[in-house]
UniProtKB/TrEMBL annotation:
It comes from the Eukaryota. CDD domains: RING-Ubox_WDSUB1-like (cd16655). GO terms for molecular function: ubiquitin-protein transferase activity. This is U-box domain-containing protein. It comes from Emiliania huxleyi. Pfam families: U-box.
Amino acid sequence: EPPADFICPITTEIMVEPVVAADGQSYERTAIERWLATKSTSPLTGGELEHSILIPNHNLRRTIREWQEARASL
């Protein structure tokens, strides 16, 4: 089982390109972009987001990749 932090709350799949939204949560880029195209709220809390800027989560992306590589070598 992948760690919960690796799972996008929108897609419920392991993230490939995680980004951090204004709510501090990481999401798969394409999923949160689709969400923000029609909404200005957090998918998790429903609260209004202060902005729609998405910051790449390089550390999480690297950690997910390392976990996937380690599992592939088993």
